Amino acid sequence: xxxxxxxxxxxxxxxxxxxxxxxxxxxxxxxxxxxxxxxxxxxxxxxxxxxxxxxxxxxxxxxxxxxxxxx
Length: 71
What we know:
This protein is an alpha+beta fold and about 70 residues long. The protein has one domain (about 5-60). The chain is about 25% helix and about 20% strand. The protein is built from 2 helices and 4 strands, in the order ββββαα. Helix 1 packs antiparallel against helix 2. The longest helix is centred in the last third of the chain and has 10 residues, at about 55-60.
């Protein structure tokens, strides 16, 4: 459910969204349909590894809660 002021974090590369628990999911419907939704962007762990392999190990060490790929 989207409430006024809800923030969505979207991967700038693959456009998956991060939930409140930090898990990444496919976007089930366009966010444009939620007029109250606020959107910010980042890069999900899978895209970070694919796009920036030379920096990925540093990201995991610095931000382990964000950049661990779920198996």
